[in-house]
């Protein structure tokens, strides 16, 4: 027989990991639907006769919704917890995308993607709050990395499952069925998740407290620097996700299936990256995160330059290591970003700070994919688009260097 005090201790230890599973399930299924606009962009574009710039507007619309919802939902999550929001968010994303499958007008599709983006963006601060409140500082990098794999895994599943099925049965039928799965998953997460008993100091729910909290966020220089850096990293990530299939299909003349496989490889490596980068920051750098983001921006810049000058008809096998490295870096940064954004403020503001940072970061994902597509349309080549991404990574590295200097001045353990 296990002594009662040991049994209680084991339950206390395992409880955060059970809650992590609920958060991961919700994050994965919301990303499975929301991020499907990237891999399915080529089919939606053919269906609605869209240009590359218009295809780039699909993920931009998703992240416009994210930008609109992240701050208010982060504030609500800090006040009321995450449990009920997990279900509401799943219903928001699932319902909007189901309605989208009945639309044949581009403007209406964009509007419905924006509405779905409200839920997609809301899931980040809601689940981030759960991680911050259930795990200790030296566990958060790993736990956040696992939770954030839900995003890249959802995107990878969209490329691996939805894209080939949509090519056979049509994207409308496939997306509608996937939305039903999302709603069911949201109900499961809601049923098994409960908020941490840890109390916060935020006790009022009114506009004055909200505006006061927002002022604190805007005056936090490290939060502003990491959030502006995230504009470039997030936008570049969405450019890769949105255009890698089209790039491989049209420029490298690979089949649609193999092009989708490369997207999956990129996103799977991004999922691995979110865990590995988190473990590296926890165990090798003692919770110092910014140096990891600097490494990521450097690797992503070199990868983008490689794609810029890769010859046409490059084989599928040659593309595998390039997309692996690119995805490991640019799709693996999010967990580190979320940790930095949550840790540079007091824990009671963790939901709001991550929502605030996501909103600023969303500017990049709203603007960069359409700009990337416009540049490709204008020059008739993907080379200029990939060079643009490399230039953005140089700017991001510079901002992160400034952030590192700022954190050293404050003698924080976050480097």
What does this structure look like?
By secondary structure, the chain is mainly alpha-helical. The protein has one domain (12-192, 214-409): MFS general substrate transporter like domains (Growth Hormone, Chain: A, Up-down Bundle). It is 83% helix and 0% strand. The protein has helices at 4-34, 41-48, 52-80, 83-100, 106-134, 137-169, 171-192, 207-219, 221-251, 256-284, 290-308, 316-330, 334-343, 350-379, 383-409. The longest helix has 33 residues, at 137-169. The model is unreliable at 4-12 and 199-204 (pLDDT under 50).
Compact description:
The protein is mainly alpha-helical and 415 residues long. The chain is built from 15 helices and no strands.
């Amino acid at each position: 027989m296990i002594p009662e005090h040991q049994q209680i201790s084991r339950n206390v230890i395992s409880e955060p990991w059970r809650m992590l599973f609920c958060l991961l399930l919700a994050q994965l299924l919301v990303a499975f639907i929301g991020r499907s606009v990237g891999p399915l962009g080529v089919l939606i574009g053919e269906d609605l006769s869209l240009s590359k710039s218009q295809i780039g507007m699909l993920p931009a619309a998703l992240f416009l919704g994210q930008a609109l919802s992240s701050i208010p939902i982060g504030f609500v999550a800090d006040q009321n917890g995450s449990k009920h929001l997990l279900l509401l968010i799943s219903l928001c994303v699932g319902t909007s995308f189901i309605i989208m499958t009945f639309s044949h007008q581009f403007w209406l599709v964009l509007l419905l993607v924006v509405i779905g983006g409200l839920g997609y963006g809301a899931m980040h601060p809601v689940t981030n709050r759960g991680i911050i409140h259930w795990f200790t500082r030296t566990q958060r990098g790993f736990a956040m990395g696992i939770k954030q794999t839900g995003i890249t895994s959802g995107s990878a599943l969209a490329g691996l499952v939805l894209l080939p099925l949509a090519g056979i049965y049509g994207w409308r039928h496939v997306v509608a069925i996937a939305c039903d799965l999302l709603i069911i998953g949201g109900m499961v997460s809601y049923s098994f998740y409960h908020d941490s008993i840890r109390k916060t100091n935020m006790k009022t729910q009114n506009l004055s407290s909200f505006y006061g909290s927002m002022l604190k966020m805007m005056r936090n220089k490290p939060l502003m620097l990491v959030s502006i850096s995230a504009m470039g990293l997030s936008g570049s990530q969405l450019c890769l996700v949105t255009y890698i299939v089209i790039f491989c299909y049209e420029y490298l003349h690979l089949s649609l299936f193999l092009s989708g496989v490369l997207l999956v490889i990129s996103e799977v490596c991004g999922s691995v990256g979110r865990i590995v980068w988190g473990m590296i920051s926890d165990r090798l750098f003692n919770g110092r995160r910014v140096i990891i983001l600097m490494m990521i921006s450097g690797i992503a810049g070199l990868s983008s330059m490689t794609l810029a000058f890769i010859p046409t008809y490059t084989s599928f096998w040659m593309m595998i290591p390039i997309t692996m490295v690119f995805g490991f870096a640019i799709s693996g940064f999010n967990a580190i970003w979320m940790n930095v954004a949550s840790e540079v403020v007091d824990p009671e503001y963790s939901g709001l700070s991550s929502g605030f940072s996501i909103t600023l970061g969303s500017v990049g994902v709203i603007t960069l994919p359409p700009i990337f597509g416009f540049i490709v349309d204008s020059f008739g080549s993907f080379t200029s688009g990939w060079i643009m991404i490399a230039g953005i990574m140089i700017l991001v590295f510079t901002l992160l260097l400034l952030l590192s200097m700022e954190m050293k001045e404050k003698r924080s353990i976050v480097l």
